[in-house]
UniProtKB/TrEMBL annotation:
Family matches, as InterPro entries: YdjM-like
Transmembrane annotation, as ranges: 64-81, 154-173
Protein name listed in UniProt: Metal-dependent hydrolase
Taxon lineage: Bacteria, Pseudomonadati, Pseudomonadota, Gammaproteobacteria, Pseudomonadales
Listed GO MF terms: hydrolase activity
Organism: Pseudomonas solani
Keywords of the record: Hydrolase, Membrane, Transmembrane, Transmembrane helix
Top-level lineage group: Bacteria
Pfam entry (one): YdjM
Length: 179
């Protein structure tokens, strides 16, 4: 898995790139929350549920169905998020899905159960440049630092480019409209 530090970065980058006129702050906060939500499945370890189980880590909570359910929930709470249901549903659903996409780019673990409950197989993407994160016990080690550096390179830098590029374009075109 990638770390909880990394999972919200793509959502935050999109939020900065598009700005609060397109993505209201409440919707952005919901997106940040839903980008991290799939890793709530680590509680399964405490309940004795094995990693490889459908309800284990990277199981049902990383599926397309789960992202779709989150999207539906986002659409239902759209008034609280200060936007329309289509925008809320799409943003929340894609934010949730971004989590499993990042996990599928890692070089370890069992993969992601994208097609649960119809297919219990776990999948990775063909290109897997991100070092898999150790669980809490191994995080504060050299390996944990290596993972953070890998995430900075493969997730952080592209997100920074997206955020600054979008912000810059908004400023540039905003000034042109004012003239």
């Amino acid at each position: 898995m990638t770390t909880l530090i990394t999972h919200p970065l793509p959502v935050l980058a999109v939020g900065i790139a598009l700005g609060s006129r397109v993505l209201p702050p409440r919707l952005l906060l919901a997106g940040l929350f839903f980008a991290c939500l799939p890793d709530a499945d680590v509680a399964a370890f405490k309940l004795g549920i094995a990693y490889a189980d459908a309800f284990g880590h990277r199981g049902f909570s990383h599926s397309l169905l789960f992202a779709g359910c989150c999207a539906l929930f986002g659409a239902l709470i759209a008034p609280l998020l200060r936007c329309g249901p289509l925008k809320a549903g799409l943003f929340v659903g894609l934010s949730t899905l971004s989590h499993s996409l990042l996990d599928a780019l890692t070089d370890g673990g069992l993969g992601v159960a994208w097609f649960w409950p119809w297919d219990l197989q776990r999948y990775f993407l063909p290109w897997r440049p991100i070092e898999v994160s150790p669980f809490i016990g191994g995080f504060f080690t050299q390996r944990g630092l290596d993972v953070l550096l890998s995430e900075a390179r493969w997730v952080g830098l592209p997100c920074l480019v997206l955020a600054l590029g979008g912000f810059g374009l908004r400023r540039l075109f905003g000034k042109r409209r004012a003239e």
